[in-house]
Amino acid sequence: xxxxDSGFDNDAGNFPKAALRxxxxxxxxxxxxxRTRLFSAVRHIGPLISxxxxxxxxxxxxxxxxxxxxFGVTSxxxxxxxxxxxxxxxxxxxxxxxxxxxEFEDALVRTSEGxxxxxxxxxxxxxxxxxxxxxxxxxxxxxxxxxxxxxxxPDSDRHRLVIDLKEGMKxxxxxxxxxxxxxxGIADIIEQVTAPTPAQATTMDPxxxxxxxxxxKRDLEVIVIDPGHGGSDPGAASSTGVQEKVxxxxxxxxxxxxxxxxxxxxxxLTRADDSRLPLDQxxxxxxxxxxxxxxxxxxxxxxDPNVRGGSIYTLSKDGSERSAxxxxxxxxxxxxxxxxxxxxSGGDPGLNRTLYELAQKTTATNSGRFANLLxxxxxxxxxxxxxxxxxxxxxxxLSPDVPAVLFELAFISNDKDAANLVSPAWxxxxxxxxxxxxxxxxxxxxxxxxxxxxxxxxxxxx
Length: 462
Description:
This protein is of the alpha/beta class.
């Protein structure tokens, strides 16, 4: 890995041009075609939606703007939908038994998708010629109980449209989505923000005008694979001229293919061709994609050509502290696990830092868990260094809310390792081991998040 922490600040505006989406489950991320992605908050903190919600990008003069969609589980048989608007707008609602349709005559609705809770499995908002629409796909039978509006006032500068749903007749619908009572206070919020929850990945593809939006994709974990170096930054090189940027891209593509075959993941590559990206752009891609896991692939080099073997890096304590300092200096506490920490803390700088560090701690724990699973799978598959799990202050791993590892595949400066790096057979074998560790990580993560709550028993002897 050559100069792993060079920031490439001068290239901050240069994005890979050849990256493109190849199918519904595999994305080659192109920042030049950036789409708003709001599903990160929903996936990581679904149980908080009823209390905290999330906000869509908005703001225009004239017609009302739809700026937020929130959900609340008011009881086992009732779900509340709250739509936030900049001002009142004419609307109508209808239902066909499997979907709830909210249609506006004069509101600006930006195309977006997200997951719901309770009776709502997902929603899709789209702009249309004569006003936008939001379609809520039901996770279990429900009908509209009442609809009412709450004007803007001292407690909120938003006009709120409320749709209450109640348990309806049973029909053939999607499996029910899990729901959780809203948190009661900041301690509960902190606990739920950092608790593992099943991922609910969605994509934000534009929906052509006049077409009914398709239901949001659900239950796909988002994996961001980052081939190191690229473009004018070739990275390290072997004695025969094999370049690090070439072998990392080949490994990333093979891993993406293997994961795609499983049908359980949404795959994002930070670069799809020989393009150079600054390090902060790589981690930003992961956060914008709502990544559940970030894997950066590199090849190491050493002045001693006899040194060989792979290793796994996670973020060091120094790196975590640097990330927190940078966030504190810039005031960038606004989006961690999709939540505005400044809003949660009431603007208290000390509490901002505490919440940020708590999120970092959870992320570091999950990064370490994955690193250990990965090393277990790699042993016996490819040579590894002694002390193969290492920590470092690496810029590409600084995201406070995305579990991340950097995998040094091998030493490109060693002839045997270099031969492995260009071998399709070695590449397939090693990336299959990586894919197996990803499967194991999310299996354990899901089991932890869906386990029944512990019930305290009676004291012994009673």
